[in-house]
Design goal:
3 domains; Arc Repressor Mutant, subunit A; mainly alpha
């Protein structure tokens, strides 16, 4: 049986599904009789779920990031934040080469990617937010498909949950988009990618029921957004009914005077 110290060292890769089957069995054997390690494993999994639900986006260069941050921070806080942000910039510069936008959830640097992505979304102008959210949604589905293909259903489930968080946040903008045609095409593309995740899940022999349910729930949410968008869109009628005829108004005419009779002429 594994020692307590070794088990604690392996809890993170164990929670991420990165250990071999025999190694997982050894961890299972220790956790069964060790409440302390079992509790720490729960905390690791809760942290992983929190990190996955952060909305990600492509990494940004430090200089544009700092300029944008200055624009949104109150002026009196800028100098106070300068040193801290500069330190973060130095750290980010050291790891950015490794935290590529294509990093997957089983990559140890995946949390760094998520941090960069969340900053990008937070600083995005309002008119660009939906575009970034759709990019993030597609990225979560790419990750889910890859994790399903690698027989890591737990990580696929986390990516699907992250997808739902992004779509729920973008739902209002998708129901009333500035470009309805593009929004409709984007939703259809997401449907296709969800189907690809489910096919990967089934083809690899796992056919994980939780992955299947999350895919079904996500498709249902996209359907509801499409229905709400159609209900809120004004209906354009072409033809005679496009311009309603005005309601006829009664015409006021002067009351005609009676013609004088023959007797009145004589008088």
């Amino acid at each position: 049986m594994l020692s307590h110290a070794t088990t604690r060292d392996w809890l993170i890769p164990y929670a991420d599904g990165m250990l071999a089957v025999d190694e997982r069995r050894r961890i299972d054997g220790h956790i069964t009789g060790c409440p302390s390690c079992a509790r720490e494993l729960r905390e690791v999994r809760e942290l992983n779920l929190l990190l996955v639900t952060l909305p990600p986006a492509p990494p940004v260069a430090f200089a544009p990031f700092w300029l944008n941050l200055q624009a949104v921070l109150p002026h009196r806080r800028v100098l106070r934040m300068a040193f801290a942000v500069a330190a973060i910039g130095v750290l980010a510069a050291g790891v950015s080469a490794f935290a590529a936008p294509s990093a997957l959830p089983d990559n140890p640097l995946y949390p760094v990617k998520q941090l960069e992505e969340s900053l990008r979304l937070e600083l995005a102008p309002v008119n660009e937010r939906l575009t970034i959210q759709l990019q993030l949604a597609n990225e979560r589905l790419r990750e889910a498909q890859a994790m399903a293909g690698r027989h890591k259903p737990a990580l696929a489930e986390n990516s699907l949950r992250g997808f739902r968080v992004i779509i729920d946040d973008a739902a209002a903008a998708l129901k009333n988009p500035a470009d309805p045609k593009s929004a409709k095409e984007a939703l259809q593309a997401l449907h296709l990618k969800l189907d690809a995740v489910e096919r990967e899940n089934a083809d690899r022999g796992d056919d994980d029921k939780d992955v299947k349910q999350l895919v079904a729930d996500a498709n249902g949410e996209l359907d509801r957004i499409e229905q709400d968008e159609a209900a809120e869109s004004p209906t354009l009628v072409i033809g005679e009914q496009a311009t309603p005829r005005p309601t006829p108004q009664p015409t006021l005419r002067a009351t005609p005077r009676p013609e004088p009779s023959d007797d009145e002429h004589h008088h």
